[in-house]
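REQUEST FORM: STRUCTURE PREDICTION
Request ID: SP-0412
Submitted by: Lab K.M.
Chain count: 1
Length (residues): 498
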Amino acid sequence: MAEKAGKDEEMEKRITMIDTGEIMEHPNNPRKDLGDLTELAESVKLHGIMQNLIVINREEAVAGLLKEYEQTHSQIYAETLDKLRDRNAKYIVLLGHRRLAAAGEAGLDEVPCIVESGMTLNDQISLMLLENMQRNNLTIVEEAQSFQMMLDLGDTVSGVAEKSGFSESTVRRRVELAKLDRKKLETALRHSEQAGYQLTLTDLAKLERVTDIKERNRILDGATHGGQIENAVTRWIEDQQKNKHRKIILEKVAEIIGRDLGKAPKDYSPWNSKFTTLLEIECDRKPEPVLKKKETRAILEKLPADAFFAEKYHTFVIATASKAEKKLTKQEKERKEREKRVKEIKNITKRGIKNWKERILQYIDGTKSGKKDKMQQITTAVFNRMEAKGTYVNERGVLIYERAEEAEVDEWWSITDEEREKWKEKYRQAPMVMRMLLHIVESFHNDDLVDWTGEFCDGKAESYQAMIGFLEEVADYEELDEEFLAVINGTHELFLRG
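STATUS: Completed
RESULT:
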């Protein structure tokens, strides 16, 4: 107890009152934001400064910095000197930045201080760092900047770890953070907190995999949670790998063919039939094994003069605008022939349906008159066919095929309201059976008489055959399209027989 009392008495003798106007803040104080000083200023008004400040003489500090700068020429000494020169202050505060600021707000003219001497810039920063860390006053950004500053002053990672109390791995992690743009990092941390996705040190540590500092800052800019950072880092690594593989391919191909591959034309597209792909190599796979294959070398040695390098999806391609002859397999030839037959059958069917529709519209718009007595007789049969077929009834669906006064229109909205109402009225006044037949014809657009194999769909043919019967009864209709009849009956030569 006596020893402690002796130390307190000795410290008390060293305390001197210094004018607040003669003390300046330390330019390298780790804590950049002093926070809200309202409560502390009120306490200072009532009780004064309860704990003395630690300060150093400014002229002595400047002289020390000059000496250290001459030995190392480190930028941090030059920057600190610029901030200390040409100042009226006699002292620089090391410990007590908040107390000094609160004293100014409280209107105090003097504050109790102990003046230290013989401290290097590293000593000063270490003291301020330790004090703030013990009080939990520093953000991870401020810690990172302070650790980096100590390293810049010649300290080692182990030395910083010993002075700060952190592990060496933590110090290294903080130093990596110090390489980031401070404003972007602080903004990202603030935004993540506001969004409810607090960015963690683990999230930020993922940025270490990105060796390009500018790219780190780009990824960090706007990130609010770890998932965004992780995804961006993964994409960057994939891009780096892709660029590496691209370089290997281009160099190897140039070595084999004795020239550089051209760039992809502006109109290149993997779906454009104008271009032919000669070789594909996956972007994320090492290209060397593929390039060593005999068949690959054989392709490369025969590359046409206009061959170029391009990308599609996750694949590198070497392509050409020259038409390459491709021998179709037996199966490919059969498939192409089948597709051609199916297309032709559908075109014949479409043509026949169009003729039916035009004939029915003639009865609806009044240019032809049918057998009214027959119409009444088959109304029930037509309705039954509609019901069995599941025909969808929609007035607009059939009216879009109407004709305006001067020309055919294919779009419901391309005619005027007046024309639309005119045709609606004609449709509503038309015989009920004709309106029902029009709906049935419309439904045939979804009923192909041929399947994908090219065979006849006899289950759907019944409705087509019934339609011919209805038209013959009410309109003296005779189907003159022999090909259409052959398709309906399943006898057309285009059908493939099982």
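NOTES: The longest helix spans residues 330-364.
Reviewed by: T.R.
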